[in-house]
Amino acid sequence: MSSVIASRRYAYAFLSAAEAGGFLETVTGEMQMVGETLAASRDLQRALASPLINADRKTHLLEEIFAEAVGDKMMLFLRLIAHKKRAGILGGITQEFAALLDEKNGIVNAAVTSATELSDSQQKALSRSLEGYTGKKVRSAMKIDESLIGGLSVKIGDTIFDGSVRHQLQLLREKLVAVEA
């Protein structure tokens, strides 16, 4: 089983259990903190993924790092992950948990790239427009790329809306080349 599939299954199972048990709000913040801790430490990632370190040592490592910072339910989940020899995919589980939670809450992520910085009113108008298009709440991550020349490009999931001047010029170039041929 691929690590992405396994990560999604563990995340889904934990999300479902947390929702049914009424502790989803508590573990959401804890899961985010675990993910941030993993993302900040390559050494921790390597240790959890290492086949040379046994499950008991990984459990002990997770307990040392997180016992004071997370509640009983989250600690039980971390122990389970280590016991099942899935500690190496813990980072993926935290990402999948966040994605499933966003999906449950009707939130989509949009990567917005613009040629210049957008004003607050432009960002709000863009978000409203994207929310109207998707029917979901949009969380935008803004990035500036001057090579776009003007306009912007938006990526939501697998869909890209490219309204940049660079893209329009590229399309025009392709049409001109096709006419000449």
Write the topology of this structure.
Layout: H1 3-21, H2 24-40, H3 42-49, H4 55-66, H5 72-83, H6 90-104, E1 107-114, H7 120-134, E2 137-144, E3 152-156, E4 159-162, H8 165-180
Parallel strand pairs: 1-2
Antiparallel strand pairs: 1-3, 3-4
Structure description:
It is found in: Cell inner membrane. Its main location: membrane. Belongs to the ATPase delta chain family. It is a peripheral membrane protein. This protein is α+β, with helices and mostly antiparallel strands and 181 residues long. It has two domains: 3-103, Orthogonal Bundle (Peroxidase, domain 1); 107-180, no CATH class. Helix content is 63%, strand content 14%. Helix 1 packs across helix 6 and helix 4 (55-66) runs antiparallel to helix 5. The radius of gyration is 22 Å and the shape is elongated.
Beta-strand segment tally: 4
Instruction: Write the H/E string, N to C.
Output: HHHHHHEHEEEH
What proportion of the residues form beta strands (DSSP E)?
5-15%
Structural Rg: 22 Å
> Could you give me the name of the CATH homologous superfamily of the largest domain?
N-terminal domain of the delta subunit of the F1F0-ATP synthase
Outline the low-pLDDT stretches.
none
CATH architecture classification name of the largest domain = Orthogonal Bundle
Structural key phrases:
8 helices; 181 residues; elongated; 14% strand; four-stranded mixed beta sheet; 2 domains; alpha+beta; Peroxidase, domain 1
